[in-house]
Amino acid sequence: MYLYTIIKHLNKIKVMKNLKLLSLSLLLSLSLSFSGCLKEKVWPYPCLGKCINNITIDQMVSPNNYIDENGFYHIEWVGLKYFTIQNDMSKLIPEYYINGVPLVGVGYDSDTWLLFDEITFHVPIYNMFGNTNTWDQPISVGNDTITLDNIAQNHAPLNIVGYQINKSVCYTCPVPTFGTSTRYSYKGRKMVYLRESMVGDTLMVVVDSWWNIDLGDSFHQEDILNIVVD
To answer: Which of 166, 168, 167, 148 is nearest to 156 (CA)?
Structure first.
């Protein structure tokens, strides 16, 4: 009788163990079946049509600029110390907007750098007891000329698209970022520095256009603008 009780108890333990193994096996099977049903999200092509950025140089700033038979842009020096690059980007599909803002961006870089040796500027001087005009604004009694020397020793060269490489740049980062950019606009504009000493030179400006700068599928267009200053 005692032996029978022991055997019966052992059989009960064996059955419970088998039930646990069976439950674990069913749970594992269900988990594998469920994970098999999960599919990686397929992101759609970002643009409504073909992704294109039609790049031009603003005629209002640089009148009569044109592209020659070799694909070089020509701008005339008219005294303004900049010219403006205009973008006209293809529209994104609704999936690539956040709160109505399109996730597009355009980056700019150039091979042309400026190194300033000195800067001279004029500061108006006013007499605290001097005259004022009809709008009660003080009238200058003269100008003071200020010259800053040896600027190159204290300031890094300036790229014509508007940035410097200085001590704060992370050279050891996986992807060092240089250049400037405009974002979240299909019709972004970029002012590029220009001066009279550049007449006769050919400037190179690289324009990187991106459709969708967040998660999902994206498209990239690179344009190299060779710009002759006449």
So the answer is: 166
Residue 106 CA to residue 183 CA, distance in Å, equals 6
Closest CA to 219 of 96, 99, 109: 96
Q: How many CB atoms lie within 10 A of CB 22?
A: 10
In DSSP terms, 37 is beta-bridged to: none
**DSSP letter, residue 130:** S
Tokens of 140: 């200058």
Mention every residue, 6+ apart, whose C-beta is less than 8 A from residue 80. 61, 62, 194
Boundaries of every domain in the chain: 1-39, 56-113+157-229, 117-154
pLDDT tens figures, 19-46: 454 455 555 555 555 455 556 778 899 9
b/e 58-89 (16+ beta carbons within 10 angstroms → b)? beebbeebeeeeeeebbbebeeeeebbbbbeb
State the greatest distance between any 2 C-alpha atoms of the chain, in Å, as a whole number: 125
pLDDT tens string 153-208 = 667 788 999 998 877 777 676 655 678 999 999 999 999 999 999 999 999 999 99
Determine whether 168 is exposed, middle or buried from the number of CB atoms within 10 Å of its CB (0-12, 13-18, 19+).
Answer: exposed
Identify the CATH class of 56-113+157-229.
Answer: mainly beta
Per-residue CA distances from 160 to 94, 201, 205 (Å): 35, 13, 9
| pTM attached to this predicted model | 0.69
